[in-house]
Amino acid sequence: MSIVLIVTGFYLPVLLYFGQFSLIVLLILTILDGFLLFNHKNPIAAKRNIEARLNLGDETLINISIKNKGNQPYRITVFDEPPFEMQARDLTFNGYIKAGSEEQFSYTFKPTERGEYEWKNLHVFIRSFINLLERRIIIEAPEKVLVYPSILQMKNFEFLIFNQQTQQRGIKKIRRLGHNNEFEQIKNYIQGDDIRTVNWKATSRRSELMVNQFQAQRSQSVYAVIDKSRSMEHRFEGLTLLDHAINSTLIFSNIALKKGDKIGLVTFSHKLGTQIAPNLGKRQLQRILDALFAQKTEFKESNYSLLYQSLRKTIPFRSLLMLYTNFETELAMHRALPMLKSINKRHVLVVIFFKNTDLNEELTKSPTTARELYVSTLAEDVINTKKRIAKELNRHGIQTVLTAPNELNVDTLNKYLELKSRGLI
User: Fold this and answer.
1) Sheet holding 53-55: strands in order across?
2) What is the C-alpha separation between 149 and 56, in angstroms, rounded?
3) Counting beta carbons within 10 angstroms of the beta carbon of residue 293, is it exposed (0 to 12), middle (13 to 18) or buried (19 or more)?
4) For residues 351 and 398, is the Cβ–Cβ distance under 8 A?
5) Which of 38, 132, 197, 316 pairs as cysteine with 33 (C-beta 3.0–4.6 A)?
6) H helices, E strands: number in the chain
């Protein structure tokens, strides 16, 4: 017992001294660490690189540049404050940056709504090689970015169509039938006229050679008509059907202008919305882009009677109307059908509406329960309903495009090019 007491009495002072020494060393290292971290007023510079305009539905790369302005290396943690619409809580990056060097961090963002997005500050946490303390540096980097309908997709489709690459994306190469001209008058034949333009009936009546004279085809009026009712609020791959229609309208409008047609815009729901008269040129495309940027869904039923009355007053000449809408039931289609038929008598009407692609997955499953069988049967009925709606519209002479949202751009362009090649517009 006495031996244990002697040993314990011997070690207690040693442990006490060792503890005091360790505490002093820790205090010295902490002071040194603090000096290394805070001896430079602005040891870190940071910058977020992002475009002023983003494209709806397209991923964009956002870069964060971190520069070490100090004379020693740091371990760093970078935290960005993105818009709340991103619902991102994990935009944290860790790294090691040498003295005088620069590091890059990046992440992607895919906007699913049009409008203004706001990024706030960058937070950088630095640690020295001692790694006892951490210094937080807040770098003010507020940025407001506008998300517009996808100009990127518009440019891609323009490149594909006018650079003979259309088949890679499913766009049909359609040859225009006949002359790319319009008939002007019958006149006497003079030397040099194309013998293929001889009008034999007129020649027989006049007993002298007569030919048809043509003039260059005039620009046709084409309208994108967008339904903004609640049926266009359904989402596919993060975007509403309205946003898919808006992106498609921009792409289609650009191609129509490039083809020499005048393009206009009409939006509606329970009331009339934007109306832009058809015109040519880049300014017209900018007007349409600005108008599309501001469109919002109205959570009410579409008023097709009001649409018909408005089109009758504002569009005096026969035009092509590309109507983006969404019929979920045959009853909804039949309510609109009388007005659609009236519009189609005065113009070339193309009704573009959407397949319910979410239901296709249900049809691929083999039902094992009564509930799964019910869901599968319901899905098949909805899909067949869409097909019956398209068939009924076609029966009344109305052009239709029943398409999946991800195929909308290609199918819309194909229909426009088909109608143009057939001389219907």
Assistant:
1) 53-55, 143-148, 115-119
2) 5
3) middle
4) yes
5) 132
6) 10, 20
